[in-house]
Amino acid sequence: MAARKKIIDPIVDIENQIAKLQTQLRSARAKKATDAKKAVAAAIKANGAAQKKLSTLTSKLAKDQAAAKTKKTAAVKDRVAKGKIQVAAQKKVVADAKAAVAEAQTVVKALNETTKLAVAIETAAQKAEQALKKAAAKKAAAEAKKAKAAAKKKAKADAIKAKAAAVKAKAAAKKAAAAEKKKAQAAAMKAKAAAKKAAAAEKKKAQAAAKKAKAAEKKAAAAAKKKAQAAAKKAKAATPKAAVKKPAAKKATAKKAAAPKAEAKKAAAKPAGAKAASAKKAVTKKTTAKKATAKAAPAKAASAKKPAAKKVTAKAANKATEQKAAVKKATAKKPAAKKVAAAKPAPVAAEKPVAPAPVAQIKPATPAPAAAEKPAAPVAKPEAAPAAALAAAEAPVSASLFGDE
């Protein structure tokens, strides 16, 4: 990259050149004066030498002339003539030397006058320049004072203007902040409404899913009930033969069913209040129904079409329905007890009181889900199997089917 050319003010450049030339002029004048003085000295010296030679030649000529008076020989005459010529020539040299001295002195004098005049001019110029500089400085000070006052006035006006602009900007910023706040509030409200709408949609979706699950559960319960009824019907048809063949097995079944019943009573006694009382009553009623069924067993063996057995079965079914209503009523009064009772059916289900070994030999089609949800209704005797199966079929599979939850 080429070096940037420095911009020079032409006036300043000329002034600098003048200053240099003046310095050179002073040096040249001083040298010329020195040379003139040297020339004067040399001319004076040459004049002295010429005069000395002239006096020597004059003395020699005088001696030759004196000798020529006594001796009038040709040689003496020649020396006198030659000496006269030399003296004349030397006089001319002396005259030239004197003229050279005078000229040199004139030159020195002229140079001195010129130098004196130049010094006077330079002094006057310096004085004038100083006066001009002083006037210019005074004028510049006045202009600076004037410019300072103008700048102060302008700065004051600019400060007032800037203050007004700051106030205006502050108002604009406040307005913009208010607009942003309003916009943010609107966005928040919109987001809240959208969230509410989404929550409502989710709730609706969950309700639909719950309804669908409830319907599916109800359908499954109906299918289980139907299956249990079919199994009960099948067990009822198979009960008379099994009762005639194995009366000892009935007693063992009753004894084995009594132990789970007692444990079921203990498990049902843990939940609070009405549920425990209802469960106790239900167990008592079911025991009565089982006894009645056991008493009616010989009559069934004698005659399967006897109306007493049908009445006992219908009575047991009615008692199971009443028990279900009482449990539902107690659950509605005390939801905490319902939740605790619903949370602890596992131990009773683990004991499997619904499927004792003798009944397994008879193979009554008692469904497992119904037995798990109705632990207090084990089949004591083969004759009571149809009533127990009907009661288990009529029992609810889940509390959610009736809208308790």
Quick recap:
It is built from ten helices and no strands. With 405 residues, it is mainly α.
Description:
It is built from 10 helices and no strands. By secondary structure, the chain is an all-alpha fold. It folds into 2 domains: 11-159; 246-402, no CATH class. The longest helix is centred in the middle third of the chain and has 172 residues, at 74-245. The chain is rod-shaped and about 220 Å long.
Give the tags.
405 residues; 2 domains; 10 helices; 86% helix
% residues in beta strands:
under 5%
Assembly annotation: single chain
Q: In total, how many domains does the architecture comprise?
A: 2
Mean pLDDT level: 74
Helix-strand string: HHHHHHHHHH
Structural class computed from helices and strand pairing: mainly alpha
Number of helical stretches of at least 4 residues: 10
Question: Radius of gyration, Cα only, in angstroms?
Answer: 77 Å
The end-to-end distance, rounded to whole angstroms, is: 90 Å
Shape label = rod-shaped
> What ranges have pLDDT less than 50 throughout 5 or more consecutive residues?
271-276, 296-310, 334-386, 399-405
Main β sheet profile: none
